[in-house]
Amino acid sequence: MGKDESLTMTIITLLTDFGTSDPYVAEVKAVLLSGAPGATLVDVTHDIRPGDIRSAAFVLGRTWHRFPLGTVHLAVVDPGVGTPRPALLLRAHGHIFVGPDNGIFSAVLHDAVVEAVELHVPAGAAPTFHGRDLFAPAAAAAARGCSLHELGEQLAFAPRRLAYTEPRQEGRGAVGEVIYVDRFGTLVTNLPPELARDATDVRVEELEVGPVRRTFSDVPSGAMVAFIGSGRTLEVAVRDGSATDTLHVGVGARVELRY
Amino acid sequence: MGKDESLTMTIITLLTDFGTSDPYVAEVKAVLLSGAPGATLVDVTHDIRPGDIRSAAFVLGRTWHRFPLGTVHLAVVDPGVGTPRPALLLRAHGHIFVGPDNGIFSAVLHDAVVEAVELHVPAGAAPTFHGRDLFAPAAAAAARGCSLHELGEQLAFAPRRLAYTEPRQEGRGAVGEVIYVDRFGTLVTNLPPELARDATDVRVEELEVGPVRRTFSDVPSGAMVAFIGSGRTLEVAVRDGSATDTLHVGVGARVELRY
Amino acid sequence: MGKDESLTMTIITLLTDFGTSDPYVAEVKAVLLSGAPGATLVDVTHDIRPGDIRSAAFVLGRTWHRFPLGTVHLAVVDPGVGTPRPALLLRAHGHIFVGPDNGIFSAVLHDAVVEAVELHVPAGAAPTFHGRDLFAPAAAAAARGCSLHELGEQLAFAPRRLAYTEPRQEGRGAVGEVIYVDRFGTLVTNLPPELARDATDVRVEELEVGPVRRTFSDVPSGAMVAFIGSGRTLEVAVRDGSATDTLHVGVGARVELRY
């Protein structure tokens, strides 16, 4: 094919629990590139644990805002596919978001002015694969520049948000929890720098980790260390090792700060 | 580099058993982008079990037809690399297919008018890596618009097809089998909607699954369910679980329908 | 977005130990596409074992030279992130390389005329994520065409190189070692064709493999075989099987040649 003036340069990101062994991701990409020729596709991840909306919301919350304005984010972790749960297309912060109304956009909706439409299920859509038959065509249309009102009806209710446990002061300290564990076994917490920065003592469950440091190279290999992570919350790691394996804790573990 | 009027916009899809840990996929992509600058590369999957031509043919069969006309599909699951098995470039249904003649294109060849050429092994090609040294250069040339007869000699025989067990009527019912198991543990069968749609009773081996329903959300969490899947054949799943783990069956398992 | 005359067509390759489950790779890609709109991103791999600089250097060494001149290679396996280890941007062989000064570029530096600058850590860079905050912005700037001296200060020392054990003659034979094991369980050695081509007897540790053959299809299924691999060194495989599982050896195993 030659060059085509109607090509879009829009970026479309993909975040799913489909894995990368099966045909599913390629079927979605085929629909995207058919509907939005020239779009740049970026895999965020397809390795979300099946149905784990909470992790998907965390990963989306860390990534979307680093992409250029106008990026379309397709996020399909959708254990309720085929049920009457609404299908959403949102515009917030100058980005577009497409996916099920199950809380996956919680981190995006925080503090945002949101325009939202509910997508209609196209005739013939497979009830088990809205990623391909409902969300991908809508994402492609948005990438082509279709307006929200062409793609669905204005939402008559607020998009769903996950409930989060907020960090809290407790006596002379503060308490939060582990919200994500990464491939290095690092524990990501919900404790923001304002609370964590000056802590002289971090404990995970009953285990002493020590003061908050600058980075994991401030301790010897094999030692535990707490620091403000690259996502701007407190993290607990083992240098050249795995904190989740060493401490035998995961998502939900209690993290306590003393000053 | 500046923009170049000779850029191609063609999509090239990649389907291999190379995995994604080793240098192999990147070596192939480097050859593709060197030979067809500007091409859009789409990974179908690289996680086919080494040498599993049957799964590769299934995945290719589900995906190729959703891409735009003119797409080049590079499919290299090739346990016979280095033997005299022919290397193919096919045109069928307005798409181009490149890979070994071992049955990997079976699903594409069904009902198709096929033009086919046999590729010559370039001098110096590594006998263990035709993906990089034989198939990728041919795919890049096809993406650039080279004609079939520039790339090889007209095939003097029919491309190889895998033998498939067809679903059959048996008494007052029908019998098929599991042909693929996906990451969710869902059992994909070879039973088409015409046979399956009205079944009141589905059995996998001796196990009762129940009637054919619309989708897995028609049963409670943890229950078994049969439905017409997104690939338009009968599937058997466990809602929020894994049918392959629950039923202890996999590819080849007998699936029986009663009406 | 419409088309933009300032778009770059440069390829940027990515080689990391970040895995593909977490947000990290997408955060890096967002920075790359924000800084170099239109760039073509190619994943080499993200599945390097955490901190395994030696495997990263091997994979980079096999892949970089197959990409077009002008390609930018971002290589971040960086166990020393946050320590004072220098951050490098190199130009060699007409390609650009960006990453930590820890030996990851060893295979590139061999025999090369290298221009090198040391990158400054931007204010506000997360000490645990230089891939996103230091290396990706530099790679994007290089892809846009910035000159080396705009991006850092000329390096006052030679980039670090890993020490490699060279193959050596021993009596009437030669001795090398396994330097990489791939997903198929094939053992890649450091023995070049000049030494290996005429060997009549290959041994791995004390185990007899036989003569050097053309390819693995020269032996029956299940048999061990030595051949000159697609990376132009001796490899030892088991046809339709795994040499690492059959021989119970891995990286560092002694490989002996007799003539």
Give a written overview of the molecule.
3 copies of one chain form a homotrimer. By secondary structure, chain A is α+β, with helices and mostly antiparallel strands. In chain A, 21% of the residues lie in helices and 30% in strands. The first copy, chain A, contains 7 helices and 16 strands. In chain A, the strands form 2 sheets. In chain A, strands 8, 9, 10, 11, 12, 13, 14, 15 and 16 form a 9-stranded mixed β-sheet that branches. A 7-stranded mixed β-sheet of chain A has the order 2-1-3-5-4-6-7, sandwiched between helices. In chain A, strand 11 and strand 12 form a beta hairpin. Chain A is elongated. Chain A starts with 10 loop residues before the first strand and ends with a strand. In chain A, 52% of the residues are buried. The N terminus of chain A is likely disordered. At the A-B interface, helix 1 of A face strand 2 and helix 2 of B.
